[in-house]
Give the backbone structure.
Amino acid sequence: MRINVKVNGRSYARDVEAHKTLLRFLREDLGLTGTKEGCGAGECGACTVILDGRTVNSCMVLAAETDGSSIETIEGEAREGRLSEIQEAFDRHHAVQCGFCTGGMVMSVRDLLVRKPKPTVEEIKEGIEGNFCRCTGYQQIIEAVLDASGQGAGPGALKIVDDGRRGHV
Amino acid sequence: MLHEFDYASPSSREELHELLARHGKSAKLLAGGTDLLVNIRAGLSRPALVIDVKKVREFKGITWSAAEGLVIRPAVTINEVLADKVVKERFPLLAECAHDLASYQIRNRATVIGNVVNASPCSDMAPALLCLGAKAVISSKRGEREIPFSQFFKGVKKTVLAEDELLERIVVPASSSGARGAYRKLKRINGHDLGIVGVALMRKDDRVSLGISSSAPTPVLVEGLGEGDEEAKVVAAARAAISPISDVRCSKEYREFMVETYVRRLLAEVK
């Protein structure tokens, strides 16, 4: 079936198979491979993109569902060769190690900062709860988000204490 | 990779009913897709036709009126429930359960109705809906019928829905407006996870109700308790209503212990 979508401000009209996910459409049909497949089941968030202003796991959306939609992916972050403020903050704080989660992580942070321009540490944790990072650790990422939102915190300045909470026990 | 299937996105309920009447046996309804597409990917579901319900005009939005109560339609996402002022003011228990469901981006997509029709024993929305005395309005080309939620679930992943039917509206009665309540969900990690057990407790007038997930083949409602009842009686009623199993997440005994623990804590916390 034919779909018309806008991705990072550019319009595309493409024929897609009904069973193709948005993730595969972005990667295989549009060549936008910054969006990654981690688990394919909504656990890890590596495939997070912004669909009509809301973050979604693109592995759990059909391309067919997005006809007429506007989509933002990690490729839309840098403009004219310049990193976005979020990307620069991730760089400054070493919030990237292997980088596999970073594309999705940055999209969740982008959305969080639209909703909450000055998020607290708790709000940042909730904002990225659907994005797993398995190597950097979250402390540098949280620092980067505080920094990108103009809340100071130079690299290593933030000491996040594990409060030991596990669920509601 | 997903297997090949056809996709339809009807714009009216009549069109949808017609599709279900014709293809109900081999079709699956798609709302948020956060359960369906995972099941398709895992090969657990192999529909020939996927019917998207989100474009149906009448299926959008939450409405509230004293006459009708709170009406939740098929395209309403979990985050829409969380953002709704009426829910926050009149039905805080719904928001409590919604907040504990999965991750932020899943809540952007997952729907309340999808969460209940999936009929998982660990449904997070069911405990609130059971406590609040919600009704399920079921429709098909043949007409409409209404049942209390306590009769909606028939087993693990099984509901009363026939092949040509859908759950078109959830109606939370106005008489439950103002009920106090809270939900406690035990998870393996502090972030998003399926529940090990979940307990919702509601107080309204002199009544105390419990909605319990992940502790029986279906979410369970415990009714008939009152403000005068001692803690031991409420705990015993909860224990009598559940029949947990041991599985990959924990043992049967731990589930029983944690349901009791949460009931005790909620009795003290919800005033």
Summary: Residues 6-52 of chain B form a domain with the Uridine Diphospho-n-acetylenolpyruvylglucosamine Reductase; domain 2 fold (CATH 3.30.43). Residues 10 and 38 of chain B are 23 Å apart (CA to CA).
